[in-house]
Amino acid sequence: MSETSQHEPIDNLHSENDPVPFASPASNTEAAYVTTPQDYDAILLTGFGGPEGQEDVIPFLRNVTAGRGIPDERLEEVATHYRHFGGVSPINEHNKQLRASIEAQLRDRGIDLPVYWGNRNWAPYLEDTVQQAADNGHTRLLAIATSAYSSYSSCRQYREDFARALIDTGLAGKVTIDKVRQFFDHPGFVTPFREGVEAALRDFSAQGLAPEEVRVLFATHSIPMTDAARSGPEELTLGEGGAYAAQHRAVGGVIMEQLRAAVPAWGETQWELVYQSRSGPASQPWLEPDVCDRIAELPAEGIKAVAIVPLGFLSDHMEVLWDLDEEAIEAAEDAGLLATRTQTPGVHPEFVTGLVDLIQERVAAVPAGDRSAMTDLGPWFDVCRPGCCENVRRGFSPAAAGLVP
């Protein structure tokens, strides 16, 4: 929107006492929501990354587990999931599609902002992407992380990635990175899930199932209980599972309320939040119940069909294709249940529109009361609060887009 030459020199905008390190002037404040409009040079789409072939699988998993001392033999157990699909994770292709869709939507709205894409764990690496943006004269970046909820791995770690990229490239003080708010309850994110659940319930009804014979399982990635308890800011008390579990429960509740309003009989269809993809030692408590364990228990409760909703995921990447489409569907078959896995947002038009709405919201500094949010927890914060989403094992590392620490 603006050329670098039109900006105030960024070198003069930062000091060790800044409340929000690495931030643009509008976001370098203790306020939860920005109140000053801010021009940006580019959008930074940030992903997890994934292998592109069989030879990439173990190096990729080493990146994911760096610092944890996990031997290759253990990594090979997880590698079988990727090898089942030719060693290629679909996540990179999905992010390419998402990037192109965001670019198209920006053009349609007359917004002249390029979209860069960088990953945490595989090429294109975030450091290289930030360097490329700076080389092109784009020094004031607005980031979108491909995760909607609050937790260490889905929010704070991305903010640490931004800080690390700026420090490692020597661009700290020359490039700023802000981040759009967590968008778990934005209509653009919620709508594809609601449509998927509605389609599943209609299909089960057409097969003669009564609403009370169907269970909706909203599935998300499990995380350690200690990390879950620290998800979200310290100032909020949100019960067991912290902000991470509370946000998922709130979104699931909104979806089912909307569907029950549309078809009152669906009020007899119960729903619950389940977890998947845990990877820690058995001695470490993680969020439960596990989706497959829960499926095995449902026939005894009179359930004949399950709609498995990948509520924690943006696209059909490995945790969806393997943990749900393979393992959870197999668990349903073993239990004698009908089962369907509903859609992820992917590049659903409403989702892409919602992401661009978030960009424009941040550029214009739309007041919090005028922002789109479908639960009482939102709209979430522009600037993350102090102590938000601490990693218990690692503690706090430098992070962008939030108050210290």
UniProtKB/TrEMBL annotation:
InterPro entries: Ferrochelatase (IPR001015), Ferrochelatase_C (IPR033644), Ferrochelatase_N (IPR033659). One of its GO terms (biological process) is heme biosynthetic process. Its EC number is 4.99.1.9. Fe(2+) binds at residues 221, 319. It is found in: Cytoplasm. Residues 1-27 are annotated as: Disordered. Belongs to the ferrochelatase family. This is Coproporphyrin III ferrochelatase. It comes from Enteractinococcus coprophilus.
